[in-house]
Amino acid sequence: MRYLTDRKRAVGKGASGSGTEHYWWMTMSSVALAFLVPTFIFVFGSAIGGTQEEVIAHFARPFPAILTGLVTLVGMRHFAKGAQVMLEDYTQGSLRKGLVILVYSLSYVITALVLYALAKMTFLSIVLNSAN
Description:
This protein has 132 residues and is mostly helical. It is built from 5 helices and no strands. The chain has a single domain (18-131), classed as 3 helical TM bundles of succinate and fumarate reductases (Up-down Bundle), CATH 1.20.1300.
């Protein structure tokens, strides 16, 4: 005979079934972004005002490139999940589904564009350094 307490029956049976997981993801990504974004602003700010070759060389280095990739990945994921919650609270029906798809698509497109730009800068840096 299996005995289930009320608590065991209720675990995972919330309105969405994943509220705690979502809460922890948003909390963890917020903390990560609290450290990543100021560091990124400092790294990005040091590249402002340079020539194209200097900026490419700056972002082709490992630390600025990895930091930019992390800020983009964590930031866009945080944006998509946060926007999904807002849309689920304030819209309904097909409009909700369409807007959630649009927000996730936008976050993936932005992430892909930034990662492509970083890869291209790294490649250009290699080409420019081999030409010199």
